[in-house]
């Protein structure tokens, strides 16, 4: 009786030309039942013939023994796919029409269950049957740290996170294609907003200010509605007496960051590690952003303040390059809570206020009291009187202590 297909299991293939040393290491991993870690992107196909096609272009090298043909048959069980290390079907972006292509993010772990050598199409092909594994966090270190930062964006879609990893490696066109494909599916506003933000970031890295503004406007449409102007809130424009201060802070940010926008993440990290003064200058960058945010809030430009604040938090959490002092991060959270409160978006406001309160160590006593009071007021507004009462009681206890 033929075996019925398991919807929770997927078999994919990868054809690869390898050196004798690489094959020997894989055979050794099979014999010792040790894990195989892959720390780069790699593409596979649901069609074995497509995978085998990639072996046909190296017949001369295969004949002289300097290179060997290998086919990997990989079994994926859905429950073993880590949420931190996505595996995504990118068939719609494949270079081969009709191919069912599956892309693995870096950091995947496999075990080899079977090894064989078969003679096929005139050549010896080394075949490895592998199974995707999870639970090897200690083996991932640097890759895992990077991906955990990406997961903090709170977007649960493998295509989005593969796009983010591609952008990290400066494979911008591939990342843009993935984000645009996700946008075409219109999954939900959270994913759309995150895609627009990533596209804006890539456009800025490529010095395409026109395209960056287009993506910024798309983000703004989601935040405040399509009828709102990206340059104006419910309040008044920036006051004349504040404009020169705002302009000064914007100029300082440009002076601090402008010369480094063209550097890769790796080169920028090296520059910061080699120059303590440069690192200190970058630490000051977020101080200027915070000053700008305060001016925007003073002038009731809440949407602009939200964008600049979230951009600062996002840049710091994802790249880890631009330092953000814990005390300043708390202040950013408080200002976000206030902006969303003024825009009557109570759920978002509560989220950021509570994030500020979670870090009591870096929240000043005055900020703590004001923030708890704001939380209580929002709970009253939403008729959560009992919860508000508990908040006020906790505030009184903290104050007495």
TrEMBL record:
<feature type="domain" description="ADP ribosyltransferase">
    <location>
        <begin position="8"/>
        <end position="124"/>
    </location>
</feature>
<dbReference type="InterPro" id="IPR011990">
    <property type="entry name" value="TPR-like_helical_dom_sf"/>
</dbReference>
<dbReference type="InterPro" id="IPR019734">
    <property type="entry name" value="TPR_rpt"/>
</dbReference>
<dbReference type="Pfam" id="PF03496">
    <property type="entry name" value="ADPrib_exo_Tox"/>
</dbReference>
<protein>
    <recommendedName>
        <fullName>ADP ribosyltransferase domain-containing protein</fullName>
    </recommendedName>
</protein>
<dbReference type="InterPro" id="IPR003540">
    <property type="entry name" value="ADP-ribosyltransferase"/>
</dbReference>
<dbReference type="InterPro" id="IPR051685">
    <property type="entry name" value="Ycf3/AcsC/BcsC/TPR_MFPF"/>
</dbReference>
<keyword id="KW-0802">TPR repeat</keyword>
<keyword id="KW-0677">Repeat</keyword>
């Amino acid at each position: 009786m033929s075996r019925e297909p398991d919807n929770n299991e997927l078999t994919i293939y990868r054809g690869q030309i390898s050196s004798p040393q690489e094959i020997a290491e894989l055979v050794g991993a099979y014999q010792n039942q040790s894990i195989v870690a892959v720390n780069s992107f790699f593409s596979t196909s649901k069609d074995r013939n497509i995978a085998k096609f990639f072996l046909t272009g190296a017949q001369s090298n295969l004949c002289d023994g300097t290179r060997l043909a290998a086919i990997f048959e990989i079994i994926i069980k859905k429950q073993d796919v880590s949420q931190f290390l996505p595996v995504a079907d990118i068939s719609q972006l494949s270079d081969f029409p009709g191919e069912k292509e599956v892309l693995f993010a870096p950091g995947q772990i496999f075990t080899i269950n079977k090894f064989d050598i078969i003679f096929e199409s005139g050549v010896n092909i080394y075949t490895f049957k592998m199974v995707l594994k999870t639970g090897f966090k200690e083996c991932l270190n640097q890759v895992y740290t990077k991906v955990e930062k990406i997961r903090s964006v709170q977007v649960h879609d493998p295509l989005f996170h593969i796009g983010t990893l591609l952008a990290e490696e400066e494979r911008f066109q591939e990342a843009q294609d993935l984000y645009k494909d996700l946008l075409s599916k219109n999954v939900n506003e959270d994913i759309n907003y995150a895609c627009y933000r990533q596209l804006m970031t890539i456009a800025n890295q490529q010095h395409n200010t026109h395209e960056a503004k287009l993506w910024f406007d798309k983000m703004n449409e989601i935040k405040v509605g399509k009828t709102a102007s990206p340059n104006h809130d419910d309040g008044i424009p920036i006051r004349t007496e504040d404009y020169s201060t705002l302009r000064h802070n914007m100029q300082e940010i440009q002076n601090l960051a402008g010369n480094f926008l063209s550097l890769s993440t790796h080169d920028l990290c090296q520059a910061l590690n080699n120059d303590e003064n440069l690192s200190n200058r970058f630490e000051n960058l977020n101080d200027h952003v915070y000053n700008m945010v305060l001016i925007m809030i003073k002038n009731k430009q809440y949407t602009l303040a939200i964008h600049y604040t979230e951009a600062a938090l996002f840049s710091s959490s994802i790249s880890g390059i631009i330092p953000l002092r814990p005390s300043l991060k708390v202040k950013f959270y408080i200002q976000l809570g206030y902006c969303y409160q003024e825009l009557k978006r109570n759920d978002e406001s509560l989220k950021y206020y509570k994030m500020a309160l979670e870090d009591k160590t870096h929240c000043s006593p005055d900020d703590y009291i004001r923030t708890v009071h704001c939380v209580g007021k929002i709970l009253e507004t939403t008729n959560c009187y009992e919860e508000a009462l508990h908040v006020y009681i906790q505030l009184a206890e903290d104050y007495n202590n």
